[in-house]
# Entry
Amino acid sequence: SPTPVKVAVTGAAGQIGYSLLFRIASGALLGPDTPVELRLLEITPALGALEGVVMELDDCAFPLLSKVEIGDDAETIFDGVNLALLVGARPRTKGMERGDLLEANGAIFTAQGKALNKVAADDVRIGVTGNPANTNALIAMSNAPDIPRERFSALTRLDHNRGLSQLAKKAGVTVSEIKKLTIWGNHSATQYTDIFHAEINGQNAAEVVNDQAWIADTFIPTVAKRGAAIIEARGSSSAASAASATIDAGRDWLTGSPEGDWVSMAVVSDGSYGVPEGLIYSYPVITRNGDWEIVQGLEIDDFSRAKMDATAAELVEERDAVKALGLI
Ligand code: NAX
# Structure
């Protein structure tokens, strides 16, 4: 049988982990023919809870799950991993300033970047879900000089999926009838969900919708504020949907985006679309065999330009703040 793929998940005892691990172990990430070895990283006080999660993984008797290792030492857990899903992060707690949050996460992502640099497999891919995802990815990437920069990405697939579902409802179609939606920029309130290049059954989505006020005043803010709406309704933040998007993103990265479509992924900017080089910025990308390519040549009107620039400006600010803290 084929060699198991080693997949690391950090923050494995958390909410997202509780959904993500079972999906990975069932084959949703790597397909029905690829066995998987899970490497689960947590902070020391959460290891007991993580043991309970592993008991449940055992009890599922997943045929594809070859082995599970848990621990609190990044170098041990990341040793030889082919894919690292960095989910664990320090949430913003009451009274915490933005600088404190960046600093707390900086400590996590500098250490994890260094550990990956030292011990991960040569073909490693790293996906960051933990917030602030783009800047955490930038910190990890900057602390892993021997890993090609293209191997890092931050998750905007949840925003992409949220956009698909909102647009499908408005247009009275199913999500699979929509292609080429784009999330530009930061996974934050400044993100820009672009339907001007999207297609609904081959027709331009903005033309099908034909309602600029809805696009500007309802659609874009609804997608951007969906996380807050989930917290309001559920009493805790999106977890199953975030896990599902983490699976979608990892699967498409490794096995390729669907023909005739693209996906949104925050990746290192090469200056495309006037975005400052080196930022981790969400773009429309086509993926194949673990590589990605930014879709080029899309026409950008003034409405889109302003929104793409605003989210880039926020990422520049975050980058400058972590630079000032000596994290990159
Ligand atoms: P939880 O607080 O339930 O779980 C996080 C886990 O990470 C905890 O078990 C904690 O012990 C662990 N952890 C903290 N520091 C660690 C470290 N240094 N090494 C390993 N583990 C560590 O949060 P959860 O709801 O699972 O969310 C995880 C992260 O995803 C948060 O940062 C959250 O903001 C972010 N999200 C990102 C989304 C995205 O689309 N990019 C959407 C969902 C979610 O909000």
User: Anything to note?
Assistant: The first helix runs from residue 15 to 26. The longest strand covers residues 280-288. Residues 39 and 245 are 20 Å apart (CA to CA).
